[in-house]
Structure formats: structure tokens, C-alpha cells
Amino acid sequence: IMFETFNVPAMYLSDESTLSLFASGRTSGIVLHSGDGITTSTPIYEGYTLPHAINTLDIAGRDVTEYLQKILQTRGYSFTTTAEREIVRDIKEKLAYTAFDYGTEMAEAKREDPSVIYRKYELPDGQEIDINEERFQCAEIMFKPVMADADKYESSKGVHEMLYDSIRRCDKELQCDLFQNIVLSGGNMIFKGMDDRLIKEIRKLEPKGYKVNIDTC
Fold first, then answer.
1. Which of 18, 77, 109, 168 has the fewest CB atoms found within 10 Å of its own CB?
2. Residues 120-145: what's their mean pLDDT?
3. Which of these, 200, 193, 201, 184, lies nearest to 29 by C-alpha position?
4. pTM score of the predicted model
5. Which pLDDT tens digit goes with each residue over 24-66?
6. What HEC string does the chain produce?
């Protein structure tokens, strides 16, 4: 179709992580990609992926939505139908963010006047519901998968750990460049505060003090 119908002179196929890296203006780096169904960390050197260091996590955007649906239900807000699930997804996309420090953020949310965190969301029928700590609780499962399902994800690593592990499985001479060229891609990586939280968590894991730089594609 591309050659016979659109008469393109050439075509290049590649995986989404590599294309995300290219889109950021790099040919070497590591891409943390999280879409709807899966999260991957993919190291790339001069345009070639390093398969031995790729990590995957079976938690992504769909799971964040389901977890938000679950914690909203504990507040008395029931969203069960397919249409109602889309409302939860909209709440996530409009109001959710990543806490820089989960404990501090929870303490702020429990204050008598949590005005910094508290938001209202208008449902399609015009009613308004209160959204407070749920705004950052849902995204926290990317760092603590066990929060989503204690049995299923008991030994699962968070995104910061899988990213760090991918870098550490690469040759030592590449690691410094990889730490400085981390690219986030996919809709589940665009939560406000995700980059700052990742930098903080990676610095905790990295004793050598490499410079850590993250861009969002």
C-alpha cells in the first residue's frame, strides 16, 4: 500500500521506544515507555536496542485507571459500567499527578484544609464529586505495584527500579550516558511530577552520584 498507493520512495520500521528516542533528538539513551497495557525500559545505543537489558512491568495506564476506580469506590463513588469507566479515565487524565514525596503528600491531604490538593470534578449529569488524595494515590502504583494487588505484584519492581536495573545491566562505559539521557514516552508517563519523582528515586539507588537527566517525549 505504501509503495503502490502512496508512492513513497522508502519506508523504515522500528519499535516505538527507538522512535521516541529519535524524536527527542538522540540516538543513544534509555526510554521508559508506558502506555495502556505495559511499561518497558529500553536501553538504546547508536540506534540499536540492547535486548539483554530490556525490562517490562505489567502495570500501565489501564491499571492506574482501575486503581483509581477502586479507591473512589471506597469513598462511595461507584463507577461500574464501561461509560462510567471512561469518566474515571477522564478524572485521571485531568486531575492525577505524581507525588514527589508520597508520605508528605498524604499528610497534606489529611489536613483540615487540604486546598492545595483538593479538587472538584463535574460528572456528565452536572453533579460534582470531591477528589483529594486519590489524585496522587492512583499514580503511586507505578512506583509501588504492590498497592494495586498485594498478591499479584508482591515481588514486582517499581518503574524507578526497573529503569535503574536496565541501566546497570548495560556495559559500564555506557551507564553514565544512559543516566543522562532518559526519555519518558507514552500517555502514562505524562503525569505532572513524574520526571522529578523518577530523578529523586534513581538518585537514591545510585551511590556513584551520576548526573540524572530526564526528558519527556
1. 168
2. 94
3. 184
4. 0.91
5. 999 999 999 999 999 999 999 999 999 999 999 999 999 999 9
6. CCCCCCCCCCCCCCCHHHHHHHHCCCCCEEEEEECCCCEEEEEEECCEECHHHCEEECCCHHHHHHHHHHHHHHCCCCCCCHHHHHHHHHHHHHHCECCCCHHHHHHHHCCCCCCCCCEEEECCCCCEEEECCHHHHHHHCCCCHHHCCCCCCCCCCCHHHHHHHHHHCCCHHHHHHHHHCEEEECHHHCCECHHHHHHHHHHHHCCCCCCCCEEEC
